[in-house]
Write a structure and sequence with these properties.
Shape: globular
Helix content: 25-40%
Number of strands: 8
Number of helices: 4
Mean pLDDT: 94
Structural class: alpha/beta
Oligomer: single chain
Strand content: 25-35%
Strand order of the largest sheet: 5-2-6-7-1-8
């Protein structure tokens, strides 16, 4: 059974690099992956995940109106999706985290989400709070 994984760490801890490595490992085994990143994070370019060591990959930019379940299931109907990877997961809404959980639970697609837990004041981000509440696996 697939799971929803949440990997959280401080800024500059290598989360995007780890996500890109996981993506490479899935693709190396011949599995189709889908990458998502927050639309408001354009440091590596719009719709792009980049690491500070120079690795990068194109991704689907999400905002508050994006129905992640629908986007993934539409792709899954065309090409079997082996894994969904989400960068900047703290910017997900609680409803979007629930959509990712549904992908794992109902569609049997593993979801690996990477992000921050709290903002600079120590307040939980909405997406991180929901991930901490429902993710099958939490890794700091």
């Amino acid at each position: 059974m697939a799971k929803l994984y949440f990997y959280y760490a401080s800024m500059n801890a290598g989360k995007s690099t780890t996500l890109l490595q996981a993506d490479f490992n899935y693709r190396e085994r011949g599995l189709h992956t889908m990458l998502f990143t927050a639309a408001l994070d354009d440091r590596a370019g719009a719709g792009r995940i980049g690491s500070r060591i120079g690795l990068g990959a194109d991704a689907i930019a999400f905002d508050g109106a994006t129905d992640l379940f629908a986007v993934v299931m539409a792709e899954h109907a065309e090409h079997t999706v082996g894994c969904v990877l989400v960068d900047e997961a703290q910017f997900l809404s609680a409803a979007q985290v629930d959509q990712l959980a549904a992908l794992a639970d109902k569609a049997n697609i593993p979801v690996l989400a990477y992000g921050l837990r709290t903002d600079f004041r120590g307040a939980l981000f909405e997406g991180a709070a929901r991930m901490l509440a429902i993710a099958d696996s939490l890794t700091e």
